[in-house]
Specification:
31 strands, five-stranded antiparallel beta sheet, 670 residues
């Protein structure tokens, strides 16, 4: 144990860890950046005799086997900290006493017997290590066993092409050989490895993606025939066979990648002869080819970052950002050179060649530089994408489909607000703004629908979840329209046209997300500019706002009528609109009270009789009539209350009758 502790303390001599206590970003505009490095290892040791380097995608760990040790860097920890504040983290009292910092950067160590190693993968619970020693033998080692006991050696009859762990009830360990797929059940407590089933195939090579639980197999070299299996929680499902496009060059393993985009599983195949990337949508019962993307390069690799397809043109040394949504290519940006976001104190002690020969792309978003001994994470630079994309509607849709948690400021929401603000300052065409507003309204509707759904019913990676960067109406008014109007950057009629288009977009695509402040702003601008006819057209009976905004809108209009000094005609238009909004909103009592506040006593009584509003007591109208100091008005209102209100004269009270006698006497005296 003392020797092991000594080895752990001296490990930093062999393994240089990457920290996020400092950062450096190149100043070039870029759409995709390398962040990290998230792991650094000794190239000489892992590439020597017996050493190996492999990526365990099920546990998201980079495994380096060297000198009887398995070093494991956990990518999940780095992913959580990639977008964090690069300043040094403050340590708690306990951590200061122990001398440890809050973020772990050193790799975990598992000790094994020295010897040759080809591949390694941990079980999904992290207790077992499967270590491939030869092309026909796999050892199982318990991670925390100090005796380094190899409690089972699995030997196959054919050459091993790959292996992985699953959560399938039928089999939790799968080995692919040149003769087929072998399904095993590994019981750690019983130290038992049981062969459950063998699916016999001639296999040339295989690819497995833990994210999609999909195993893709090639039957023979030089043939485009492909087939595969998907490992669900209950069974192993065989997928239909399919054929990739034939070419003069035989398909290679390096030309295939399995990616998940917006919840859809794709097999990406690069045709080196035609220089195109083909996307095959994989279903359980069918395989559909959705599209071909020309890439104009003879050496291409593919990655996925936040549901965005990144095509790496290795010869041109540029990444191509493609947004494939619902089977269609939504956005293609002009390629720019890849950027680098360096983190860590020792950021200048290595030499990196961009898109070098030693680069290996690990699905979905990692890049391993085997020559430099560095592991990088790919990240989208949304600000660079915003600056290099010329289609505002496509850019807005792309930003609204991003996950707000994955990006440092300015995030997708802030960049969307900046896009709208820039278009307004440049006086963009109203039609162009209308396209953007429709996108934003659809995003608000999707976010609201996602919140209403149960979490277990939401599809992973689909836009519109709780972390959606959707922009509610109040935010658009406060952060874009309000400041620009107060600073005098927008002419009144242009602003009115834009707000009207925004209102129509919200009513058409997200009626439940409409805000009464938007309607109040449109009404105020229309009255200020004397656009009364347009106001009547916007708020005609068949084009009234949604019901849920009518009542608060009536309150806003009442406040507007009391705070602003309107000309007589505008005031009458506003009053009519208030009454119309209140009555159609179903709050007819509020409408009667509005009429009374305006001093329109007789109009309120006509409204009350027409709509049979019986929730207001007669005293409200009698007090309003008495305050006019007109005896004839009081006598008329008293008679109305006796004839039209429930209870008649019996509920009017003594005070009302005394006032009636006074009003009659006053009329006689007059």
């Amino acid at each position: 144990e003392k020797e092991r502790d000594k080895e752990r303390r001296n490990l930093h001599v062999q393994v240089r860890e990457a920290t996020d206590m400092d950062e450096k970003t190149d100043e070039r505009v870029a759409q995709v950046r390398l962040t990290g490095p998230v792991a650094r290892y000794d190239v000489a040791t892992t590439s020597g005799t017996g050493g190996c380097l492999s990526y365990d995608d099920a546990n998201r760990k980079l495994l380096a086997v060297q000198d009887g040790k398995v070093l494991a860097w956990c990518m999940e920890e780095h992913q959580k900290n990639d977008n964090a504040d690069p300043a040094p983290e403050e340590m708690s009292v306990e951590k200061q006493k122990s001398g440890r910092k809050g973020r772990k950067r050193t790799p975990d160590i598992t000790y094994v017997h020295p010897g040759r190693a080809i591949n390694a993968r941990f079980s999904l619970d992290g207790t077992l290590l499967a270590l491939e020693r030869t092309d026909a033998e796999i050892e199982f080692v318990e991670q925390d066993d100090p005796s380094l006991l190899v409690w089972h050696k699995l030997k196959t009859q054919a050459s091993i092409l790959g292996f992985f762990w699953t959560k399938c009830n039928a089999s939790n360990f799968v080995v692919i050989t040149t003769n087929g797929v072998e399904l095993y059940q590994v019981r750690a407590k019983e130290r038992l490895v049981e062969l459950r089933q063998v699916k016999k195939h001639k296999v040339a090579w295989c690819i497995y993606s833990h994210e999609s639980r999909l195993l893709l197999l090639a039957k023979t070299r030089g043939s485009g025939r492909m087939y595969g299996y998907q490992f669900t929680a209950h069974e192993c499902v065989k997928l239909p066979k399919f054929y990739v496009d034939e070419s003069t060059l035989e398909p290679r393993k390096e030309d295939f990648t399995i990616l998940v985009l917006y919840g859809r599983i794709y097999c990406c195949h690069f045709d080196r002869t035609a220089c195109k990337l083909s996307l095959y949508h994989l279903f359980r019962d069918a395989i559909l080819k959705e599209m071909d993307v020309p890439v104009y390069s003879a050496h291409v690799r593919a990655s996925a970052v936040d549901n965005t397809l990144i095509v790496h043109a290795m010869q041109a040394k540029v990444p191509i950002v493609l947004d494939v949504y619902q089977g269609e290519l939504q956005m293609v940006s002009t390629p720019l050179p890849i950027g680098v976001l360096l983190r860590g104190k020792r950021r200048n002690d290595f030499v990196m060649e961009v898109y070098g020969d030693g680069w290996e792309f690990l699905a979905p978003d990692l890049v391993l530089d085997r020559r430099a001994g560095l592991l990088w994470r790919l990240a989208l630079d949304l600000q660079g994408l915003s600056e290099s994309t010329s289609e505002p509607a496509q850019l807005a849709a792309f930003l609204q489909r991003r996950d707000e948690r994955q990006y440092p400021p300015p995030g997708p929401q802030a960049l969307t607000l900046r896009l709208v603000e820039t278009m307004l300052l440049e006086r963009a065409e109203v039609s162009a703004l209308s396209s953007v507003f429709r996108v934003l309204a659809a995003a608000c509707s999707a976010a609201a629908q996602s919140v209403r759904e149960k979490p277990d019913q939401q599809r992973k990676g689909m836009p519109g979840g709780p972390d959606s960067p959707c922009i509610p109406v109040w935010m658009m008014l406060e952060r874009v329209f309000g400041p620009l109007e107060s600073q005098g950057h927008l002419e009144g009629r242009y602003l009115l046209s834009v707000l009207t288009e925004y209102m129509w977009a919200m009513e058409a695509h997200a009626p439940g997300q409409c805000d009464p402040m938007l309607y109040a702003k449109i009404i105020s601008l229309s009255l200020c500019m004397g656009s009364h006819e347009k106001l009547y057209q916007l708020f005609r009976p068949e084009a009234m706002p949604p019901v849920h905004v009518l009542s608060p809108l009536a309150d806003l209009l009442l406040s507007m009528s009391m705070e602003e000094d309107w000309d007589p005609y505008s005031a009458s238009v506003l009053e009519d609109l208030m009454v119309d909004v209140s009555s159609r909103g179903g709050d007819r009592e509020q409408c009667v009270r509005l009429l009374l506040r305006q001093g329109r006593l007789l109009a309120s009584l006509r409204f009350l009789r027409r709509w049979r509003v019986d929730s207001l007591p007669p005293r409200v109208f009698l007090d309003a009539a008495w305050s006019t100091q007109d005896p004839s008005t009081y006598i008329a209102v008293y008679r109305f209350c006796c004839d039209s209100m429930p209870g008649g004269a019996s509920v009017l009270g003594t005070l009302a009758r005394d006032r009636l006698h006074q009003a009659i006497q006053m009329s006689y005296d007059a």
